[in-house]
């Protein structure tokens, strides 16, 4: 399962002094193809279908490395389990925020930011940076509420 991002990922691993192993390639491939936030178990079952030699511990260990490298983001949306997604797509970084339904646990990614939202966040980041002498490099925002489907039930 070679993906277009394999060469880019291979270079990132080699640049960091890591080997680009088959399990790592397959884990990244599963995440690249998914439109959802996946648990380690979800990733394990998908990779295991292709590469039966992989174990759940290997998936967890590699996910932690991928998070440490900044290639994968790890989230907890309040359901008590970690969820993962690529930090950037093959075309580059795609910053987005999350809307999390507290009834059905659905997570909606959104990146179509309103101008007022961009302006507000920029002001907040500048203010916090100045106040605390802190260089902000990124932020994560989750909004919790009830999705439209659950509201109509």
Describe the protein in words.
The structure is a single chain. The protein is α+β, with helices and mostly antiparallel strands. It folds into 2 domains: 1-93, Winged helix-like DNA-binding domain superfamily/Winged helix DNA-binding domain (Arc Repressor Mutant, subunit A, Orthogonal Bundle); 95-153, Ferric-uptake regulator, C-terminal dimerisarion domain (Dna Ligase, domain 1, 2-Layer Sandwich), CATH 3.30.1490.190. The chain is 45% helix and 18% strand. The protein has helices at residues 6-15, 22-33, 40-50, 56-69, 115-132, 148-151; strands at residues 72-76, 82-86, 88-89, 92-93, 97-101, 107-110, 142-145. A 3-stranded mixed beta sheet has the order 6-5-7, with no helix packed on it. A two-stranded antiparallel ribbon has the order 1-2. A two-stranded antiparallel ribbon has the order 3-4. Strand 3 (88-89) and strand 4 (92-93) form a beta hairpin. Helix 2 (22-33) crosses helix 3 (40-50) and helix 3 packs across helix 4. The protein is globular and about 50 Å long.
